[in-house]
Structures are given as structure tokens and as C-alpha cells.
Write a structure and sequence with these properties.
ABC transporter involved in vitamin B12 uptake, BtuC; mainly alpha; two-stranded antiparallel ribbon; ABC transporter permease; single chain
């Protein structure tokens, strides 16, 4: 009697997961060009010339620099595997140190002092997290609280003491005496030529002239330094052996140690640089208004952390995020309720574009996200049509609402370093 065996049934092959597309530089340039085109269109429809003039972009550039420096500082720390919630506190230390040194020795001494003050904050965070293994979030929050109390105490002691030299020079327990202005530069001929083009209010051309004029007219040297730091950070972290070892500490410190990398050294170096960059951002704030003021950072350290996440832990992404948040912050300062009201229409158009893109991806839950985007877009259009301006309270909230919206939209494309936030002890891999 013969027996027959049936071949085992093969399980149906599952479709391979769809790889996420990376944003290449040509795509980024197309997105920027599309954003400029939409901005020009909204400016023409609403008639709000303040939306894209050089004053708006100059203010946006000034607002973006401290946010970008804080974000870049967070990138250095987190690429080495250490979460840096303490960026706000490091910026506070930078603003105070810059105010204390600046009124005595000038703005460039203030910049150096701000860098040192922030670096000391970074070293303190490294001591807590790397050496003693304190939870990174706890250490960062504690550093923010400590920095706030310390600068308030020192301001009363050094700036507000009755009869002190600082008090006689105009200081008090809330601010430092004024310091000298830092010189700026303009490109002769080019700035005036772009200004004349901007005044014609031509579609797209005048808007582009306004952006370019902001980059060549009355620009702070610290802005140029910030741009160089972004470029330098990219080459150091992604084009050098030092950067490769530092990033390996954030991806797999045990494997890095097995290859002879001193993980403790690179984490300390990353946090020192992180604090120095955040302190430079704080110094930029103090030098820009010529004094240190209490609560001068205004949460920019936290927004810088958001730009780092939005930028997917990349210098270019951080720069784009800082530019976006700086632009929204400048709307609050320069444009006011009327310009923010015009932005409602631009946000509606962007949300419609987002809904179309979500539907094209075909990912799980894309239809729900697209529907939500369309509903919000309709509400924004109704808000724009039924009102003439935006309440001052909402104008003040604009940068923070933008932070939440951008992070919620960018969440699906993020990939943090694998070992971020994890405690490390030498010899764990043996």
C-alpha cells in the first residue's frame, strides 16, 4: 500500500514594507521654491506687503539664529546619545555671562563669556548623566531650574547691589548695564539695488529680492558665524573620523567601545560643544539688545530642541526648522495681527497640499489624517473670511502653535539615534 504525501502549502508572501523616501537636495529646493511661490501668491491676494518684505526676513533671521544654535547644540549632544533638555538653562547661563562681561569689555568679550557659560552648563549635564548615570530628562530639567535660580541670584548680587559699579552704570536686579553695539555689515550696491526691486512689489521677484536683501543688508557678524558653525558641524560630524566615533556613541556605545573608542570622552566633548553652542545663542540675545534681561531666553531652548527633532538630527534640517520658527516669531514681532491673519490663508493651502500628499502615499491611517487636514483648512479659510485681524493673544502663541503642528506632521519621518537616552557603563560589552 502506497502512501502519498502532499506538499506543504506555502504561506502567502507578504508585501515588503515600503521604504520611506529621503528628501534629496533637489526636492528640498523645489519645496523651498514652492513655499516662496505660495507666499508671493498670498501676499498678492491679501495685499499685506509686510508678509514678505526685507524687514520681515531680517527679523526672522535674527529670531532664527538663537533657536538654530540651541537646536545645533541639541544635535551634538543627542548624536552622542545624551538627551539635552537643559538647552534652555545653558542659554540662560550664556545670556547672563554675556551681560556681565559685555558691559565691561565689549560685545566680543560677551560672546566669549556666553560660550564659556553655556559650556560649563554642558559639563555639568555631562557629569550628571555620563559619570553618575542620572536620568537624562531629570538632569536636564534640574539644570534648567538651577540655571534660572543662579542667574537671578547673581543678577541681584552683581547688577543690583546698591552702590556697586554695575548699579551706577544702569544695572539692576533684573538686567545688566548696557554694552556697546556690535558692528554689522552690508554689501554695498547690492543691498540698495535689491531694495529698489523690492519696492515695486512685483510678483515673486520682489519677494525674492526681499529675502536676498535681508541676507546682505545690516547683517550681524554672529549670524555669519552661525552659518559657518552649521556648515562646520556637518563636515565634522559626517566627514571626519572624530564625528564618526562621536555618532557611534549615540548608535551603539558598546560596539564603539569594542573598537577602542573612549565613549566617555566623546560624550563629554559632545555635551561641552552642545552647551557652548547654546551659550552662544544666549549671548546673541544679550548682544542684540545690548543688555542681559531676566527671562531673556523666552523658551527658545525648548523650541531649539523642537527644531532638532523636526530636522531629523541633521544640521540642514535644524537650519530649515530654525528658519521656519524664526519666521513665525518675526510675524509676531513685526507683522502683528494683520500679517498673522494673512498667514491663515497660507496655512490652509499648505494643509490642502498635505492632505493630497497623504492620500497619495497610501499609508495606514493616511485617509484619516488627510480628512483632518482638510477640515482644519476649511476652518482656517472661514476664520480668514469672517475676520480682519487676529487677536493679540493668538499672535503671541504663534511660534508655539507652529512648534506643535510641525512636530506632529514630521513625526513619521523621524529616526533618532538608537542609543539615545540610554545609560552607559564602561565594560558593559565584556
Amino acid at each position: 500500500m502506497s502512501t502519498t504525501t502532499s506538499a506543504p502549502k506555502k504561506a502567502p508572501a507578504s508585501a515588503p514594507p515600503r521604504a520611506k523616501r529621503k528628501l534629496s537636495y533637489p526636492v528640498v529646493l523645489l519645496l523651498v521654491a514652492g513655499g516662496l511661490l505660495l507666499l508671493s501668491l498670498v501676499r498678492v491676494i491679501t495685499g499685506d506687503v509686510q508678509l514678505s518684505n526685507s524687514q520681515q526676513f531680517s527679523s526672522a533671521l535674527g529670531a532664527a539664529v538663537p533657536i538654530g544654535l540651541a537646536g545645533l547644540g541639541g544635535l551634538w549632544a543627542e548624536r552622542a546619545g545624551v538627551i539635552n533638555i537643559g538647552l534652555e538653562g545653558m542659554m540662560m547661563l550664556g545670556t547672563f555671562a554675556a551681560g556681565w562681561m559685555g558691559w565691561q569689555y565689549g560685545p566680543w568679550a560677551a560672546v566669549l563669556a556666553g560660550i564659556i557659560g553655556g559650556a560649563l552648563g554642558g559639563l555639568l549635564h555631562a557629569l550628571a548623566t555620563v559619570t553618575f548615570g542620572v536620568d537624562h530628562i531629570v538632569s536636564g530639567v534640574a539644570l534648567n531650574i538651577l540655571a534660572l535660580g543662579l542667574v537671578r541670584y547673581l543678577a541681584k548680587l552683581w547688577f543690583g547691589a546698591t552702590g556697586s559699579a554695575a548699579a551706577q552704570a544702569g544695572g539692576n536686579d533684573k538686567q545688566s548695564p548696557p554694552m556697546d553695539s556690535m558692528s554689522t555689515f552690508s554689501v554695498p550696491g547690492l543691498a540698495d539695488g535689491l531694495g529698489s526691486i523690492e519696492k515695486h512689489h512685483w510678483f515673486l521677484v520682489s519677494d525674492l529680492a526681499g529675502i536676498l536683501r535681508a541676507l546682505v543688508d545690516d547683517v550681524s557678524w554672529l549670524t555669519v558665524l552661525t552659518a559657518l558653525l552649521f556648515v562646520g558641524s556637518f563636515f565634522v560630524l559626517w566627514r571626519s573620523s572624530f564625528g564618526l566615533r562621536l555618532r557611534s556613541c549615540g548608535e551603539n556605545p558598546v560596539a564603539a567601545e569594542s573598537l577602542g573608542v573612549n565613549v566617555y570622552f566623546y560624550k563629554y566633548a559632545a555635551l561641552t560643544i552642545s552647551g557652548a553652542l547654546a551659550g552662544l545663542g544666549g549671548a546673541f540675545l544679550a548682544v542684540g539688545v545690548h543688555i542681559y534681561q531676566e527671562n531673556q531666553t523666552g523658551g527658545r531652548g525648548y523650541i531649539g530642541l523642537a527644531t532638532m527633532i523636526f530636522g531629523n538630527w541633521r544640521p540642514g534640517g535644524v537650519a530649515m526648522g530654525a528658519g521656519l520658527f524664526g519666521f513665525m516669531d518675526a510675524l509676531r514681532v513685526v507683522g502683528g495681527g494683520t500679517t498673522v491673519h494673512a498667514m491663515l490663508l497660507l496655512m490652509a493651502v499648505l494643509l490642502v497640499g498635505l492632505a493630497v500628499w497623504k492620500l497619495r502615499t497610501g499609508l495606514r491611517g493616511a485617509r484619516i489624517q488627510a480628512a483632518v487636514s482638510l477640515v482644519i483648512a476649511v476652518l482656517l479659510v472661514l476664520w480668514y473670511a469672517l475676520t480682519d485681524t487676529v487677536a493679540l493673544e493668538f499672535v503671541e502663541m504663534t511660534p508655539y502653535v507652529t512648534t506643535l503642528l510641525v512636530l506632529s506632521l514630521a513625526a513619521q519621518r523621524l529616526r533618532a539615534p538608537r542609543a539615545i537616552g540610554k545609560s552607559y557603563r564602561r565594560g558593559e560589552g565584556t
